[in-house]
């Protein structure tokens, strides 16, 4: 059964193979991966593989990344959702979102991420959620803190994209 979320201005649904071109367009734009360059796609074939991994998240866990659309518009304006990861051996959900720069500064990111957070809190009964955010990414910090995430210094990481602060929600819960 496909999960569909609706907000005041957006529709969120599981990505389909028809969304692969939009995945490539958005994730190959260096502006969208400025703070996470390891997420940048270089070839369209990478988007195919990424779609397969996103689809596996849905099949294996019942949650994943959503394609975010404006009503009446076929092409996604972005993607937002969660995936299961392990942080120091602890299972958590990692929050993810990327939007077409053409729609930045309109509140769509916060609106979509807010819908995802409400959905997973209801579906999985307040699971621990992690958002890794580069300290210079003020827009992402505003989004996650406006949704109740709190900075958690002990969960911060240094990885392929350098140092990232950890913002957490429902951290005292178990997945």
Automatic annotation (TrEMBL):
PANTHER family: GNAT FAMILY, PUTATIVE (AFU_ORTHOLOGUE AFUA_3G00765)-RELATED-RELATED (PTHR43792), N-ACETYLTRANSFERASE DOMAIN-CONTAINING PROTEIN (PTHR43792:SF1). This is GNAT family N-acetyltransferase. Residues 10-174 form the N-acetyltransferase domain. InterPro entries: Acyl_CoA_acyltransferase, GNAT_dom, N-acetyltransferase. It comes from Arthrobacter sulfonylureivorans.
